[in-house]
Every structure is written in C-alpha cells, then in structure tokens.
Design a protein that fits this description.
Length: 554
C-alpha cells in the first residue's frame, strides 16, 4: 500500500495555503455552478429520453466490429456517435449507436429481422445483434469514419485501484473529490439506463401510445454510482391529455380499488417482461408493498430494475435531490464519501431490510448541509424553495401531493458564505450526528431546525415531499445504535488525527471497522449503556444482521 502524500508535509494536517486554496475554489465553483449552464431536471430527463429514442444497442463480435457496423448503419441513417462497452467475465461486446434522428432508428428497426430458431418470441426492440457477414450479404467496405468512445458503462471500479488512486491524493478533500469522480455513473451508464427504460416503453406502446417510462432515483438524481440500480415509474398515459377533445377513447372500466387494479396491471406487465423482453430475467413481483414494484434484471445492459406504476412523487423527489446537488459542488462528493463510508462499516446492505438506505443517508447529508455546526448553511431548505416557486413550478400529483418548488436555480437568491473544505464538512457531518438527539428529534429538510418526532420510530426522517411519511421507517433501533457508534468512531478518528489517519486520510475512515477493532479495546455501547469489549460488539452485530431475512419497506 502506498502512503498518503499529505503526511510528507512538515506540520499538521493542512498548510494555511492549501486551506485558502480550497476556500477560493469552492466559492468560485459554487458561483459558477449557479450562474453557469444549469439544465433543469425535467429538461435533462427529456434530453436523455430523446437520446435513447435515437439510439440502438447492438451486440457485436468485438470492438473492431465498429467500422463495419458504422458503414452498415450509415446506409439507413446518419450516425451521430458510437460507444463501446463490455459486459461479463468472458466479455460480451456491445455498441450503443446514436443516430441524428428517431426516424433513422425506425429505418434500422424496419430493416432488422428475427432468427427463426429456438421458438424465440419475435419481439422488436432497440436491442439487436450484428451477425457476422457472409457471402449472402455481399462485401461491406468498412468505414474508418466512426466516432467511437471507449467507455465501460458497466464496469464497477476495482477496490484496489480506487484505494491506490486515493492514496495518490494530497489532501482528504482531494480524496473525497477523487472518490466521486472515479465512482459516479458515467455517460454510458446513463445511456444504458435510459435504453433499458425505453425497452419497456416501446414494448407496450402499441396498446398505450402515450406511455412513458421515467427513470428516477440515483440513476438520474446525480447521486448514482457505477452499477447503481434503475428505478422506473411507468405511466400508461400523460397527466394532461387533450382536455378539449370531443372524441373520447372507449376504455374498459376498472373493477375493484385503484390499488388492486394497479396490482393486477403490474402482474400482467411482470409477465410481459418475463416472457417477451429480450435480456430481462429474474422477474420478481413485490405487489403488497406500499408502492408495489416489479424487480427484474436486464443482463444486456447489466442493470437491476425496480419498476413501479404509481409513484410520481419519486420523480419529484429525484428532481429535488438533483437540484440540491446542483446548488453547490461539495454536495455530491460529500454524499459519495458518506455512502461509501456507510457501506464499508456495514451500515448499508444491498438487500432491503432494517438497515439505513442510501436514500436516507443522502437526506441526512443534505439536512446537515442545511445547518452545519459552526458555519453558515450551504443548502436552502425546501420551504424556502417552495416560497420562491414561479407559475411553471406548480406540480400537484393525482392524489393531491403538492410538489411545488423552485426548479430554475438561476432564480435562487441564495449564495452560501460557507467556505469549509470537504474534509471539514466530513468531520462536521460526523460530529453533527454524534450529537444529534435521535430519541426526540426528527430530521427534516423542509425547515431550518430539527423538529420533534411525530411518532416513536427509532429513526425519523421526514419525507420532504410527502410530509406525513417517515423515509426511514424500516430502520430498527439496533441499526440506529450502530449508526450512532459508527459516527462517533469516525468523528473520533478524524479528530484524533492519529497516525493511521495521517498516512491514509479518507481510507482510515473507510477501513474504520477493522481499524477500530484493532485499536480500541472498549466502547460504550449505546444499546445497553455498558462497556463492551469491541470484538463482543462486532460479534453481536454480525449475529444480528441475518442476510436471509427479507424485509419489505413500509
Ligand atoms: N424514494 C422515496 N421514498 C422512500 C424511498 C425511496 O421517495 N421511502 C424515492 C427517492 O426518490 C429515491 C428513489 O425512490 O431516490 C429510489 O429509491 P432507492 O432505489 O431506494 O434509492 P436511490 O436514491 O435510487 O439509491 P440507490 O443508489 O441505493 O438505489
Ligand atoms: Mg435506486
């Protein structure tokens, strides 16, 4: 393992000049971020959806096939760009081809065919493969003009490479930025997710021509990392159709409640995905949850999908989180650092259960940035954004949930005076929650102050959009205690500035479970208020987290 370069410095953690440099950098970047080219969430979503409509995903023999593929596609339309990526241990090769227009894709799909073998279902979608040329097809002169980007959209960065890259950084703040830039979802990752959503949309569009499959959650809110899942909300029709039309479609009347109709529809859509959609498998239906979902895996794009049909608030929540990330350049890197720390100390878990989720952690970071310990706020509250809303920001869902808040950040009259570095913010985050009264207080992003808990869930995070709901209702008392211990441990490591931290920076916190286990003989267990040997505590935690138990969120 290399050494953390900052430790070569003569004095304490930061030299004065590096701190000043950080301050200047953050102030300038925050101003540029707000005054620069800001794309509102809905516009970004629409741009990406259009990009997917102009694209096809083609499995090829190898990256070298791109020249032939380019020539072949150019005979049917104008190719804008191509992206190569691989998938799987014996890599399958794929190329995303983006055309200049949607009609080019229509030409390509019209000219594509099915193989009459294996009784396969002859579905048409934008997922294709490029078969090897044979004499029957004549010779194709490969063109070298193709614009191909080699970017692996499904590659989750190897942990050792990541560690090595972090060790090459000069400061903890730089490490946090590096972690963000190396692990965030890249352009190909975004394209693959929008193509995956488009596939469901296209398949069902014959019966429902106004259907929309909107990606939401971390795939689009700016907090997604490589390999993150894809949350989709499938709407069979638009909210506002041709209200003035005198010709109305005949439709089948739904019997039963809205919820049971929705569950039945989802059952059928689950079957369609399972039986007909190329690349989709492991379909699971979780229809009894508060928000019923269909889970499936799209192996051609390597994306785990959660599809719902009634969750428009998820879209507006993503809009809100996206905006919070756009307001200040420190927000996303800090969230990535906290999520990574939580994963490394086993606070989060990939299977659903009594654990704190990435989404809840994101809200904890945002709430902290609205009220840091010793410095001015970095983020405005949601109430403030709601007050600044203009006529175009008015959104109320079908079930009456008000999602109105300012969307155009260039109109935000909020300029933070906070110039803290990411390292300082990381430390303050841990200190803030080490002191937080989880027993009596709820975390709330709507107001500038923590509010009293409306009920006795161990962790209460007010859902900023649906204020009557607790986002972290699933979290058990043991997990809250574990969270409290881990934030204290992390704060302790950062404050103590002891040797391991000096040499590895952020990695000391990411490795803190093993590290603490080795260094601290005893810890005050918040659960039963007695001194436990640290190994005893960890053993107990390991016993408590039974990965075979499946929990459903509220
Ligand atoms: N969501 C919500 N209320 C909840 C849980 C989720 O509104 N109690 C919405 C949020 O918009 C969230 C999205 O559903 O971003 C998807 O949830 P989830 O997949 O759990 O979180 P992500 O933010 O996508 O994070 P991850 O990378 O872990 O998938
Ligand atoms: Mg998600």
């Amino acid at each position: 393992m290399g050494t953390f370069r900052r430790s070569l410095g003569v004095r304490g953690p930061f030299s004065k000049s590096s701190r000043l440099c950080d301050k200047k950098q953050y102030c300038q970047a925050a101003t540029e971020q707000l005054t620069g080219t800001f794309t509102p969430f809905m516009e970004m979503l629409q741009n990406r959806r259009m990009e997917a409509s102009r694209s096809v995903l083609v499995q090829v023999q190898s990256a070298q096939s791109y020249k032939q593929l380019f020539t072949y596609c150019e005979s049917m339309g104008k190719v804008k760009c191509m992206f190569h990526y691989t998938e799987g241990p014996e890599p399958m090769h794929f190329i995303i081809v983006e055309f200049e227009s949607e009609s080019d894709v229509a030409n390509v799909l019209r000219s594509s065919s099915h193989i009459q073998e294996n009784h396969s279902v002859p579905v048409a979608s934008q997922f294709l493969w490029f078969r090897a040329a044979s004499k029957k097809f004549g010779t194709l002169k490969a063109s070298a003009q193709a614009k191909l980007t080699l970017e692996n959209g499904t590659d989750v960065r190897n942990e050792n490479d990541l560690k090595a890259a972090l060790l090459r950084c000069n400061t903890v703040s730089e490490q946090i930025e590096q972690l963000h830039s190396l692990t965030k979802l890249n352009d190909v990752g975004h394209r693959l997710r929008f193509l995956t959503a488009k596939q469901v949309e296209t398949t069902i569009s014959g019966m429902f021509p106004r259907i929309c499959a909107f990606p939401f959650g971390s795939s689009v809110n700016g907090f997604g990392k490589m390999g993150c899942d894809l949350d989709i909300v499938l709407r069979l029709t638009q909210d506002r159709e041709n209200d003035n039309s005198r010709l109305i479609y005949h439709c089948k009347a739904a019997s039963g409640s809205e919820r049971s109709t929705n569950q039945r529809n989802m059952e059928t859509i689950g079957d369609l995905i399972h039986l007909f959609l190329p690349g989709c498998n492991q379909v699971r239906r979780i229809l009894q949850a508060r928000v019923p979902i269909i889970k499936y895996y799209q192996h051609l794009t390597n994306v785990e999908c959660d599809l719902s049909m009634s969750n428009m608030t998820g879209i507006y929540m993503s809009d809100f989180l996206y905006m919070m990330g756009e307001i200040d350049p420190r927000v996303r890197p800090l969230v990535f650092a906290i999520r990574k720390w939580a994963k490394e100390v086993n606070l989060t878990n990939s299977s659903p259960g009594r654990w704190i989720t990435n989404f809840s952690l994101t809200l904890l970071v945002l709430a902290f940035l609205q009220k840091p310990l010793q410095s001015p706020p970095i983020l405005p509250t949601l109430n403030r954004l709601a007050k600044l809303a203009g006529p175009n920001d008015y959104y109320v869902t079908e079930d009456g949930i008000d999602c109105t808040f300012l969307r155009d950040l260039t109109k935000l009259k909020f300029q933070t005076q906070n110039t803290s570095s990411l390292e300082v913010l990381l430390r303050e985050f841990f200190e803030y929650y080490a002191q937080f009264d989880f027993g009596a207080k709820a975390i709330c992003l709507n107001e500038a102050v923590a509010i009293s808990k409306p009920e006795h869930s161990p962790l209460y995070i007010v859902n900023p959009i649906e204020k009557g709901l607790n986002v972290s209702k699933n979290v058990s008392i043991e997990e809250v205690e574990k969270f409290k211990i881990e934030v204290r441990n992390a704060a302790w490591i950062l404050e103590s500035k002891e040797r391991n931290y000096e040499s590895t920076g952020l990695i000391a916190i990411l490795d803190s479970k093993d590290h603490i286990k080795n260094k601290l003989p005893f810890v005050l267990s918040a659960k039963n208020n007695r001194l436990m040997e640290i190994s005893e505590l960890f053993d107990e935690e390991e016993r408590n987290s039974d990965p075979n138990v499946e929990y459903k969120n509220d």
